[in-house]
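This section describes the prediction task in plain terms. A model, or a person checking by hand, is given the sequence of a single protein chain and must write out its three-dimensional structure as a string of tokens. No templates, partner chains or ligands are provided. The sample shown here is typical of the held-out split.
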Amino acid sequence: MISGGAAKEWFDRRRSTIRPWAVFVDQRRFSKPKNLGELCKRLVKNVEHFQSNYIFVLLGLILYCIISSPMLLIALAVFLGAFYIIHLKTQESKLVLLGREVTPAHQYGLASGVSFPFFWLAGAGSAVFWVLGATIVLIGSHAGFREIEGGDADDLLMEPV
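The expected answer:
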């Protein structure tokens, strides 16, 4: 499992490297690439340059998808609630079933297995693919059509196709 401290540290590091949103959405910096080579160069450089911004775009799309689907929101709340209850119960005492101790990993696995049909009914699969598709379209179009920052234009050499 990922500890809370490690997740917070990663999140803070991403927040500290985020580019200003005004620069990120500056419409004057968008243009059609001349050829496929320039498109590829823009994609590589802009994904590298705006990586933290793109991560927050992805997180925003995930949040939008969860909030806009009440069934998915309920299924996720029940799933996380079950994990929290298992966490609290394992701190108090060990669970013994038919004379054998049930480890927390087995309890989490059982909770996940029981939750799977609820996620399926809530449409979690289509939500995941919607988020992936929307992320690829948004980030790909932004990175492909946004001009590269001034000093970085000559760092990556690609032959035009």
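For orientation: Residues 6 and 12 are 10 Å apart (CA to CA).
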